# Entry
Amino acid sequence: MMAAFDPEGAAPGMKVSSRDKLRDFNKLFSAADRVLVVISADPDAIASAMAASRLLSRRVENVTIACVNAVDRPDNLAMIRLLKVGLVPLAQVKPETFTRILLVDSQPSHHELMAGLPVTAVIDHHPETGAKAPFVDVRPNYGSTATILTEYLRAARLTPSRNLATALYHAIKTDTDDFKRQTLVEDLHAFQYLFRHANIALARRIGQADLRLEYLKYFKSALQTMRLRKGRVFVHLGPVSNPDICVIIADFFMRIHTVSWSIVSGTCDQKLVVIFRNDGQRKNAGRVAKESFGSFGSAGGHRTVARAEIPLTDIKSPPIDFKDDRKVAAWVVIRTEKRAGPQPSAPKPEAGEVKANG
Ligand SMILES: [Mn+2]
# Structure
């Protein structure tokens, strides 16, 4: 039998048709169902849960979205607040009081709390883990789960509300890192569609909300104590409430066009955390992190981004006084300074002396 032309589906025989998938998905639910959508909250998971909730809102008795993690990233908090997302911690609900449980942007094996749930349906874009459930739609090539859910909404002929479209739009942007990561034409199509329905200014507001008010004191101390040598910025922040602060400050200094390396450290949970960033010009942050700190703790990363974490008790020769921020700062500089420089393309006597721009 010839397949009827399907404007929402993919080319016949080639890819998953979201219309077919939606039909199977809908069969799982009836009007008396109480549905629990379980996520590990990040923009894609939150948006996908909102979309699943929209798909089911008129088909079931109620839908609750619960997360296995504590939401504390500022951009996630902004998303939840500005888009009025109803989200509760999984610990606050009784899964056994629900008749259907849905996982979006996750698979059971991703989290022990998820693995223990009797899951009805899994919709995700992470690599296949052999999830067992009555309904599984895992598309590892997709840039985001939000793309899959956008296809479902379109197949169901449901126009997303402004807030839902904004959430999905932000999710695709986030998970594809503005299309610099794994992206399919399906992600672009979903994005293009959502663009017409989203509040772009609100999405931008959410995307740029990566700071907390309490972080400003670290900026102040970073600006006051930074050492700048040959385009390399060194900052030791001392005790920080969260290692993310070191990442934010390290990224911040890379925005200065003459800075080629940004190395920012801080102590948290009995560990020294060192964050490395560079401009990618003949440099290898992962190697520098490993050579500088690999003998003290875990250290590594990629060419432009890297990280080291050293237990504060483990440095014996010479012993480091981690209460003395100036000594720690000097130690980080000494460990990294010789290693963090441009690697010469041809052997040169002293790599540290090579100036990038002559
Ligand atoms: Mn995702």
Notes: The pocket of manganese (II) ion is lined by residues 44, 105, 125, 144-145, 175 (CB under 6 Å). Confidence is low (pLDDT under 50) at residues 1-14, 344-358. The domain at 18-208 is CATH 3.90.1640.10 (inorganic pyrophosphatase (n-terminal core)).
